[in-house]
């Protein structure tokens, strides 16, 4: 039986390279591509693949974790494999919590990509040894918790509030808000407001 795959990456060159690797085995076929999370959801609706190979960060719009979460909420769902350059512990755990069947780094051997696709199509999970060790470590040591005020800041971030609006709501200065954000970013291992919101929510910190 042929395994039907959709590639999701915001870089066409990356998709072309992956297609050449994945189409090599006779039993695996790339049936579609998408350059954004929204395009990925539409492509799955149209093509009904067995496996979606999805980048973690997809530029503007929803990211790979949100794509995974939305696809896993459907009655009939493909397996989702995250393929990325980022090996941040929090993002790995967040992807798996969202329902990803595997988390792969882009320097992985082509043969291992094929193995991951085959396992995912059978309903199994595939994690390379270095990722498995990170998952175990993250489970044993969930990391620092956010303070009550830091959680307040993240909750307001999730509403789309600006630093000035957060400061007004919490009766603090904008400098204090920026200080809280620096602490939140450091604790969660993220580099943007959107990632801070996502990781905090997925880890149940807010």
TrEMBL record:
UniProt keyword annotation of Transcription present: yes
Domain named Response regulatory: residues: 4-121
Annotated source species: Brevibacterium picturae
Species lineage: Bacteria, Bacillati, Actinomycetota, Actinomycetes, Micrococcales
Modified residue annotations for 4-aspartylphosphate: 55
CDD domains per UniProt: LuxR_C_like, REC_NarL-like
Pfam families: GerE, Response_reg
Protein name: Response regulator transcription factor
Keyword field contains tRNA-binding: no
Residue span(s) of domain HTH luxR-type: 139-204
Coiled-coil residues: none
UniProt keyword annotations, A-Z: DNA-binding, Phosphoprotein, Transcription, Transcription regulation
Transmembrane feature ranges: none
Domain of life: Bacteria
SMART domains noted in UniProt: HTH_LUXR (SM00421), REC (SM00448)
InterPro entries: CheY-like_superfamily, NreC/VraR/RcsB-like_REC, Sig_transdc_resp-reg_C-effctor, Sig_transdc_resp-reg_receiver, Tscrpt_reg_LuxR_C, WalR-like
């Amino acid at each position: 039986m042929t395994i039907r795959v959709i590639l999701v990456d915001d870089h066409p060159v990356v998709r072309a390279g992956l297609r050449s690797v994945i189409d090599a085995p006779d039993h695996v076929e790339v049936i579609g591509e998408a350059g954004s999370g929204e395009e990925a959801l539409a492509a799955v609706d149209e093509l009904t693949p067995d496996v979606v190979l999805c980048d973690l960060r997809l530029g503007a719009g929803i990211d790979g974790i949100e794509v995974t979460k939305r696809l896993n909420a459907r009655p009939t769902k493909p397996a989702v494999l995250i393929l990325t350059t980022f090996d941040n512990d929090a993002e790995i755990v967040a992807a798996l919590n969202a329902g990803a069947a595997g988390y792969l780094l882009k320097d992985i051997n082509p043969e291992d990509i094929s193995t991951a696709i085959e396992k995912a199509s059978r309903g199994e999970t595939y994690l390379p040894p270095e990722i498995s060790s990170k998952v175990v470590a993250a489970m044993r040591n969930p990391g620092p918790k956010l303070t009550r005020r830091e959680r307040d800041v993240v909750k307001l971030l999730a509403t789309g509030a600006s630093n000035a609006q957060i400061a007004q709501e919490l009766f603090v200065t904008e400098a204090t808000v920026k200080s809280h954000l620096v602490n939140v970013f450091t604790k969660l291992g993220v580099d943007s407001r959107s990632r801070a919101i996502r990781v905090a929510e997925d880890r149940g910190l807010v």
